[in-house]
Each structure stands twice: as structure tokens, then as C-alpha cells.
Write a structure and sequence with these properties.
The chain is an alpha/beta fold. The protein has 2 domains: 132 residues, Rossmann fold (3-Layer(aba) Sandwich), CATH 3.40.50.1370; 158 residues, Aspartate/ornithine carbamoyltransferase (Rossmann fold, 3-Layer(aba) Sandwich). 46% of the residues lie in helices and 14% in strands. It has a 5-stranded parallel sheet with strand order 7-6-5-8-9. A 4-stranded parallel sheet has the order 2-1-3-4, with helices on both faces. Strand 3, helix 5 and strand 4 form a beta-alpha-beta unit. Helix 1 crosses helix 13, helix 2 crosses helix 13 and helix 7 packs parallel to helix 8. The termini are close together. It binds phosphoric acid mono(formamide)ester and norvaline. The site of phosphoric acid mono(formamide)ester has 10 residues, from helix 2.
Length: 303
Amino acid sequence: MKKDLLCVSCLEPASIWRIFKLSDELMERYDQKPLQNKNILLFFEKPSLRTKVSFEVAINQLGGSCLFLSDLEIGLGSREEVKDVARVLSCYVDCIIARVFSHQKLIELAQYATIPVINGLSDDSHPCQALSDLYTIWKKKGELMDISLSFIGDGSNNVASSLILACSMMGVNITVASPNGYYPRKEVLDKAEGYAKASGVLIKVTSDPEEAARSADLLYTDVWTSMGQEREKEERLRVFSDFQINEKLLSLAKKDCLIMHCLPAHRGEEITDSVIEGPNSIVFAQAENRLVTQRGILVYLLT
Ligand code: CP
Ligand code: NVA
């Protein structure tokens, strides 16, 4: 049966560990070209640097071929119905990597496609980012148990949602500090609480970023205004102004606390230039690991 990666919940801890092991193995020997003769379509409705380039490079390194289409060409759900696009593409390519606004479109694409569909970010979730981030934490800390991550910012956005699920599934304690009205979505928290029963992690939501910083081995943030929310930008700048990762917040955390950001970063908004450029920042290792784990994800799903 084909495997999709639409959200973190499509996986279980054992399959995430399998992806991590594959990512490590492929670092040494992707010359074996496990994706030879595979054609992979990247279809993006929103801009991307990391996800697009890391997937394209990974596909090339593994011996596959890729094509890129923007929504101008496909018109998913407008020029043509999602279910028709899914069935036509299944005749031509071996996998679809899609970045979309509506998560529902992704679900429909996967439902009608006979080939794997990978979520390259939707309004609801960003599973490939979360997998890569957990891999980065594992590499930097040597383990995932007894580690505490605090996410400061929009707890309801795609990156936070996938991170909450991945942390609770993989054994990383997670605290989310968000302004009222931007807390993690209920369905995400309910699912995470379910995972926490098995993994034993603690999940906390607060509106106090200082409280969240004090317990943190890792401080994580993302933009306050996600793609598609541009009209809310002014309002968000005001609401999130106390939720910046800056020197003061960092001084409250453990001495060796690491700083994470999925990027792109808006210096002076969710994070200061001095923190992102400072000695605790691992944001570029994080970005580099997107390529490492894309190889693991592709080989896990396609071979
Ligand atoms: N972090 C991330 O997904 O970056 P892009 O939007 O540039 O792909
Ligand atoms: N939350 C951000 C993540 C970008 C990788 C957005 O959706 O714009």
C-alpha cells in the first residue's frame, strides 16, 4: 500500500526512528541511487526556499528526477478538480510533494492519488520540518528523552502544530507560550495528549513567555505572520510584541539552551539579530538537516 506523509500523525515513533536511521545511512551512501527511474512532482502554491531546494537536491542525489509546477500551471481546485488532478498525475509521476494553503486539498489529493503524497507545508501543518527538527535535537543533544522544548509565538500555526505532535510522540517535553487567541488548536492538543500517555512527556500551554523560557533546553520560534495571513500583519505585530526571543528571554533559560527557528526569520520581530547570530543558535544546522532528512523521508516512502 502507498504511504503518504500528510501530517506527523501519519507516522508512529518506530517509523520516525526508521526515517532518522535512513537519513544517517544515506549521508554516507546515496550513490546507490535508490530513486532511479522515479519522477517526482513538486507542486507549490506558496513560496519556498528550504523545502523546495532541499527536496530537489535530495531527489537528484538519490538518482530520481523532479519537475516543479506552481499553481499557475495546475489551478488545483479552480482550473481543475483536485480529484481529477490526483488521478492524472498518478499516471505520470511516482510521488507528489505539495505545498498548499488548504490542508483539505492535500487530503483529497492523497485520497484520489495512487502514488505517495508528501505535505511540503499546508496552513495546518509542516511535518517534514518537524521531523527534521526532532532529528536536529537528537543530533545536538544525543537523545530525545528528558529534553524540554519551549515554543514561543503563534501556537496555532502549521510549524507549532507539527512540532507539538512530533515532540509528544518522540518523548520531548513541550511548552507553548502564545498570546491568548493564538494557543495551539484543540485537535492538535488532544492528539498530543494521547501521544503523551505513551511517551510520558509533559505538555504545557501558557501566555507567559518567561515561564516557558525558564524550563527550556531549546527555545523555538517561527514568524508571527504565516504565509496567507498577510492582512493580519499589523494586528499580529501588536499582539505578539511580548513574545520575542531576545537576550533577556534567553538569559532566563538554561545556560546551554539552544535556539531554533524553522526560517525564514524576521529579525526584530519574533527573534533578535543578536540571538539568531549568537552562540546558542543552531538555526543553520537545522536548515542543513532539512536536506539530510528529506533523503530519509523519500527513501522511507518510495522504496
Ligand atoms: N522552513 C521552511 O519550510 O522554509 P521554506 O518556506 O523556505 O521552504
Ligand atoms: N509558519 C510559517 C512557516 C514557514 C516555513 C508560514 O507558514 O509562513
